[in-house]
Amino acid sequence: MNSSIALDLREATAPAAPATRAAAGRIADDKAMLRAAAEIARDLHKARPLVYWADTLASVVIGYGALALAIMLSSPGLALLAGLVAVLALYRAGSFIHEITHMKHSNVPGYRLGWNLLVGVPLMVPSFMYEGVHNLHHARTRYGTVEDPEYLPLALMKPWSLPLFVLIAALAPVGLLIRYALLAPLSLVVPALRKPVVERYSGLVINPSFRRRPAEGAARTQWLWQEAATSVWAIALIGLTVAGIIPLRAFAIFLVVIGTITVINQVRTLVAHLWENEGEAMTVTAQYLDSVNVPPPALLPALWAPVGLRYHALHHLLPSVPYHNLGIAHRRLTAMVEQDSPYHKASYKGLPGLVSQLAKSTMGVRR
């Protein structure tokens, strides 16, 4: 679902540090770092199917089991605790959509199908909403530009844009139900509706200017069956609730869990980059420095940035390395590069400091 803020949130000028921000895209590539990254990752590109399946299935079992408990338990305290476990486990399961976008599917046979049946369709975020979109964010000449579906210069926007950016994510469950229970079937009988549905409401993006192109070939086949399955699920969910077969309380808890997952992911997105580029093309090193790693010893990032997302900056250097090898890659690179290497400059301690830094940037406070 297009969760972008379709408002004019840009500041005309960032008064405190215009020179630094203007130069962000012109940072020269650090060839030593790029060579080191390529060298240490030569044996790290192969995905391990057992890891993917075990991690996903464990997250799914725990997540749906905890969701069932949250619905059935009469004690508010215990139900809340079960709901929290459901949110964290299903958030982890859902985060594998990022891996699906980057993986060579023949290396993990059947995984995309299994993930969509277990996670994508039930949570109304089938993988077609990310495949064919997220890869544009990694395109060398698109990152940080108006053609990047996953970039907004948030650091240059008005201060109130940040809480709005997060709070709007809470509406995602309603938006997803509208997308699949209403717009998808309507677009089959109203051809004029199909174009905006495809362009604006078929991608997990944050850039309101982005318009998606229709998929072709095998990607179109994937899109159609996933969309159809999710539409049937959304219609059934609403219909069974209206008929009283699914209790309204259960339906509400399910939507609250999805909404909470979306809000957490939106907060993670908020600190995945520094968001300081104003639209010019950036070098690979500049893209890396505009991105964020939150490596160990911090523990909480394992919860709010799971499935390798805590190494987001490193992922921009090595997008084809599977999540289970990113920790190894980070340790190798940390030991290999010099102390003054740009590689160390993308590592941060945790969420509070990153949010504070971004908030200060929107208020024109120099870091």
UniProtKB/TrEMBL annotation:
Under the heading Pfam families, the entry gives:
FA_desaturase
User: Which keywords does this chain's UniProt record carry?
Assistant: Membrane, Transmembrane, Transmembrane helix
- Is the Membrane keyword given for this protein? yes
CDD domains with a match to the protein in the record: Membrane-FADS-like
Domain named Fatty acid desaturase: residues: 80-344
Give yes or no: UniProt keyword Membrane: yes
Please name the GO terms of the biological process aspect recorded for this protein, alphabetically: lipid biosynthetic process
**GO molecular function terms attached to this record:** oxidoreductase activity, acting on paired donors, with oxidation of a pair of donors resulting in the reduction of molecular oxygen to two molecules of water
Q: Which residues cross the membrane?
A: 50-71, 77-94, 162-182, 232-258
- Per the record, GO CC terms? membrane
The name under which this protein is listed is: Fatty acid desaturase
